[in-house]
Structure to design on (330 residues):
């Protein structure tokens, strides 16, 4: 170095390079890497990969060029949906845990609120606390809720409030009580993706998607079986209820967002991209329930342009969650 100015320039350049490469636990986000909208926080083991911690998430994010993970609670439907004070407490504890992660690692995590859906007043209270105090990015609901489906009229006050707040709703599957699978076949094999379709069809059939269009859903796993079955669903909606489907059922389904965790296989994304716009597709991983590479390793098989990859990996999520935008200085 010939002088102090050269030294400062070199240090600044090194900092930029390190930032662009992403980083581990305490690193600032690069504002160029991926935004993961399907990333779980949990107090149980990490899907067979050891005990989960926020630090483990950050380590994995660093390996796969993920700047931001918006977290949702995992595998806790019974605890949330019992309609008891225990469920309310579980939701509150989980949400405060997620908010603490956001504060502890600025710019690295977002927060989808857990909601104790079968306690309507408890849920409305959690929405208010989550948005007004915890500054949540959205909420998280499941594809089936105990013995009910998410489109059940009992939940309309919840959707009214979420619509008022223009909420983003992360929509995740859970094993339904309606169906018994063949012996030895777990729900994640096929049933999760079928239940996604059941749950969304419930929202469609009961008018939630048409009545509350200021809120939007993020549907997991490249839509599950929904893109393939959407035509059949459209052909069987009740013809005597045009008030529920003023713009056509396909348009109501297409306007939702879809993330691609463990569903970046070329045939899965081909179906989704034929069904909806690429501006509605986001990146997700389902970590720690799934290894991140189960999503990332198949993306190159699709032959996408660099521009389209950026749109899916980051661009669409930046638009929906502008606080994570690369245009915003932190």
């Amino acid at each position: 170095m010939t002088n102090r100015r050269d030294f400062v320039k070199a240090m600044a350049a090194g900092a930029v390079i390190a930032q662009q490469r992403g980083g581990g636990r305490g690193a600032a986000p690069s504002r160029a890497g991926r935004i993961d909208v399907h990333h779980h926080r949990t107090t149980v083991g990490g899907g067979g990969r050891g005990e989960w911690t926020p630090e483990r998430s950050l380590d994995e994010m660093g390996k796969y060029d993920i700047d931001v993970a918006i977290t949702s609670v995992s595998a806790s439907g019974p605890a949330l949906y019992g309609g008891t004070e225990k469920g309310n407490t579980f939701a509150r504890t989980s949400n405060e845990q997620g908010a603490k992660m956001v504060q502890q690692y600025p710019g690295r995590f977002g927060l989808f609120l857990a909601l104790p859906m079968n306690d309507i007043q408890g849920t409305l209270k959690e929405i208010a606390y989550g948005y007004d105090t915890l500054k949540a990015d959205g909420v998280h609901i499941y594809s089936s809720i105990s013995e009910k489906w998410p489109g059940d009229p009992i939940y309309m006050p919840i959707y009214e409030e979420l619509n008022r707040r223009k909420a983003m709703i992360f929509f995740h599957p859970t094993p339904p009580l309606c169906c018994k699978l063949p012996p030895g076949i777990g729900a994640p094999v096929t049933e999760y993706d079928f239940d996604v379709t059941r749950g969304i069809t419930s929202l469609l059939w009961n008018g939630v998607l048409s009545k509350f269009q200021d809120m939007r859903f993020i549907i997991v796993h490249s839509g599950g079986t929904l893109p393939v079955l959407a035509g059949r669903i459209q052909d069987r909606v009740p013809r005597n209820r045009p008030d529920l489907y003023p713009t056509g059922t396909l348009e109501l389904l297409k306007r939702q967002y879809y993330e691609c965790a463990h569903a970046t296989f070329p045939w899965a994304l081909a179906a989704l991209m034929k069904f909806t716009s690429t501006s509605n597709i986001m990146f997700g991983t389902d970590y720690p329930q799934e290894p991140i590479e189960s999503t990332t390793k198949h993306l190159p098989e699709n032959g996408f342009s660099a521009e389209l990859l950026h749109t899916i990996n980051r661009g669409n999520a930046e638009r929906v969650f502008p606080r994570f935008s690369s245009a915003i200085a932190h």
